Amino acid sequence: MFVRAELKRRAKAVLSRKYLKLFVAALVLYWLTEGIPNFKIFSVDFNFGIPLSQWLDAMTITLMGRTVVGLSSLLGLFGPLVLMYALMSAAVAILARLIVFNPLRFGVMNYFKRAATEEENVNDVFRSFNQWEELKRAALTGFWRDLIVFLYSLLLIIPGVVKSYSYRFVSYLTEDEPDLDPQQILALSQEMTQGIKLDLFVLDLSFFLWYVLGVITFDIGTYFIHPYIYQTDAECYLEVRSQYYGGMHENWD
């Protein structure tokens, strides 16, 4: 449904004119997706290969950099008050992801999209925060997407990955389809990606050597690669959207 080389050519053309602004935007997006949300003050890892009744004592729990196994071990090490504080901190982190990180992430991704079609404005990054209804809609859309992908991931890794590709365009559609509710946005993204999930995976895979280069440079090079990747993703959405609304969705595979 799209030609990878053409998407990358368009992305490079945009970057040649606006690289500095998009570099800063990419840093913000990386910070939102890989930075603070993954800072392991508190985390819980489950072992799904055991009976449900044994889950609590088989959790691998990281708290303030120290790892213990099992809820009973955590209680013995820190006491119930500290455990309560840790759980409250985890709840706050989840709320921050829903109300702050996801809406901001949507804004930054649409910033890349706008860079390809019009004059982007940094204020657009914070568009979801202009009105309560917009913020609620962005937060709920992100919540349902994350929840569904998580539930599919509980089955096996592959169903979760497939579902994440189904929702590839949710961030863009949240802005472009203001009349749709969160469930409709998810359904539309799923329909737009029908038959092209493998193409999207191959598109991501085509950046593998760039990531290797980033690792070789101690991750410094990764920061300079991200604008290229994010802009290509925006170009991909614009191309698929154009085809979808151009009537080709009637024969969508």
TrEMBL record:
Keywords: Membrane, Transmembrane, Transmembrane helix. It comes from the Bacteria. InterPro entries: DUF975. The chain crosses the membrane at residues 82-104, 143-162, 207-225. The keyword Membrane applies. Pfam families: DUF975 (PF06161). This is DUF975 family protein. It comes from Holdemania massiliensis.
